[in-house]
Design brief:
Elements (H helix, E strand, L loop, with lengths): L4 H4 L3 H22 L1 H9 L21 H6 L13 E7 L7 E6 H17 L7 E4 L7 H13 L2 E3 L6 H11 L3 E4 L1 H13 L4 H4 L4 E5 L5 H11 L2 E8 L4 E7 L6 E3 L4 E6 L13 E7 L10 E7 L1 E2 L11 E2 L4 E2 L4 E3 L2 E3 L1 H8 L5 E12 L2 E10 L8 H19 L4 E5 L14 E3 L4
Parallel strand pairs: 3-4, 3-5, 5-6, 6-7, 18-21, 19-20
Antiparallel strand pairs: 1-2, 7-8, 8-9, 9-14, 10-11, 11-12, 12-15, 13-14, 16-17, 18-19
Helix pairs in contact: 2-3, 5-6, 7-8, 8-10, 11-12
Bound molecules: 5'-O-[hydroxy(phenylacetyl)phosphoryl]adenosine (DLL).
The site of 5'-O-[hydroxy(phenylacetyl)phosphoryl]adenosine has 20 residues, from helix 6, strand 7, strand 8 and strand 12.
């Protein structure tokens, strides 16, 4: 089922016309209400009246994360504070968080967009959805919650953590949709095994709505095999709204973007040049219906490609290909660009090792040095030194084939890499330690 066929299956011409009208309104709104944007637009010689076509989007300057930090907490609000009914924030590793403010209308839009991704994943009003995203400043919990309710699903707001209890509820309540980060879904499956629960037989889960972090194709397959369910990827970010920006349908060929609410471009991350449709690059998002905190041309740092061919599901919305990584996650090791997702794609599914790993990066002289911690699947190999050596050689060989460089590998004991109920920390960066 499609939640909003009128918008999700419309002709691109009609959507483009709608996008233009909404872009014009958004530019006018921020020009009149947000001094930060007015200054930037004035400097670029852009007045709201001068936006005549979607091509004019290119004339609008980019917005970056630091702009949000510099305007902490309320500097980018385009509605009076009294009209804001919810605040969320993304933690960020350093300094002040990024704040997102929502008006009543923004929350309605958010629920509408979540309803779309729920139906894309195959959810309906008969489902029991256990939301294992954190409820709090993180947008995952509350974001999914209200959209699932809008669809009519029964929501179990179990939040993240307390994994044994999650499993008990899942079993007793007959949960059919698991909503979590992919890392947490992996961890839950491990705890289930320890508890003697066979997740394929003893639980009724049939859909995984995963998001909040990237997964390699291999990890997505691993999750599908472990859970025996349809796993969908869902994308979003606090700055733009939270989850609900895009999500996969059952055909799993990219995440459908609600382009009646967001305009997406890809740019060359180094030069800022806008790339032709369908090119791989950094995704830039403009919100065109947000009232409380619209963002113009936000540089997401997420690297991907936008697919414009129609999907078999009948939706005509463009799709975001699986995110390959963030430009700021990219490591330069021995002069070669390395993404954690590439390491994941090599390690997940290899015989003898578990799908948990961590990259430890240190400074060595003027260059970066990387060590890959790889967890053994079980204790059986610990006694067999030559088998361990062979496994290490195999891992090194496979990594070299994909990354093009020799890497240091350390095999570590089963269950020694930290598990998470949220987003996994795949890189331990000790360069400034
Ligand atoms: O993670 C919002 C969200 C919650 C999306 C739950 C989906 C489900 P932030 O904490 O602001 O917001 O982090 C946003 O996480 O720029 C991406 O780098 C990454 N990310 C989120 N979803 C995906 C995904 C939420 N499906 C940042 N694939 C984004 C790859 C993702 N990366």
């Amino acid at each position: 089922m499609i939640w909003n066929p009128e918008m999700e299956c419309n002709s691109r011409g009609t959507i483009k016309q709608l996008q233009l009208e909404r872009l014009q309104e958004t530019v006018k709104r921020v020009y009149e209400n947000v001094p930060f944007y007015r200054k930037k637009l004035d400097e670029a010689g852009v007045t709201p009246d001068s936006i005549k076509s979607l091509e004019d989007l290119k004339r609008i300057p980019f917005t970056v994360k630091n702009d949000l930090r510099d305007n902490y907490p309320y500097g980018l609000f385009a509605s009076p504070l009294k009209d804001m009914v919810r605040l969320h924030a993304s933690s960020g590793t350093t300094g002040k968080p990024i704040v997102a403010g929502y008006t009543k209308k923004d929350l309605d839009t958010w629920s509408e967009l979540i309803a779309r991704i729920v139906m894309q994943a195959g959810g309906c009003d008969e489902d029991i959805a256990q939301v294992c995203f954190g409820y709090g400043l993180f947008t995952g919990g509350f974001g999914l919650h209200y959209g699932l309710e809008k669809v009519g699903a029964t929501v179990v707001p179990s939040s993240s953590g307390n994994t044994e209890k999650q499993l008990m509820l899942m079993k007793d309540f007959g949960t059919t949709i698991l909503v979590s980060t992919p890392s947490y879904a992996l961890y839950i499956s491990e705890v289930a095994e320890e508890m003697g629960i066979d997740i394929k037989k003893d639980l009724k889960v049939k859909i995984g709505m995963f998001g909040g972090e990237g997964t390699s194709e291999e990890m997505a397959k691993e999750l599908e095999n472990r859970w025996g369910i349809l796993c969908t990827e869902n994308y979003g970010l606090t700055e733009v709204m939270g989850p609900g920006v895009a999500g996969e349908c059952e055909h799993k060929c990219g995440m459908h973007i609600s382009d009646d609410h967001f305009i997406v471009e890809t740019i060359n991350p180094e030069t800022g040049e806008v790339l032709p449709e369908g090119s791989f690059g950094e995704m830039v998002i403009t919100t065109i219906t947000k009232e409380g905190m619209p963002v113009l041309r936000y540089r997401t740092k997420d690297l991907t490609r936008i697919i414009y061919e129609p999907c078999k599901c009948g939706r005509t919305t463009p799709r975001i290909e699986r995110i390959q990584g963030r430009s700021d996650d990219m490591l330069i090791i021995k002069g070669v660009n390395v993404f954690p997702s590439q390491v994941e794609s090599v390690l997940v599914g290899m015989q003898g090792i578990a799908p948990f790993f961590q990259l430890v990066v240190r400074k060595k002289g003027f260059t970066d040095d990387m060590e890959v911690l790889v967890e053994l699947a079980d204790n059986s190999l610990l006694e067999d030194f030559s088998a361990l050596e062979q496994l290490e050689r195999d891992v090194k060989h496979n990594l070299k084939t994909v990354l093009g460089i020799e890497t240091k590998v350390r095999l570590v004991e089963p269950k020694s890499i930290e598990r998470t109920a949220g987003k996994a920390k795949k890189v331990l960066d000790l360069r400034n330690a």
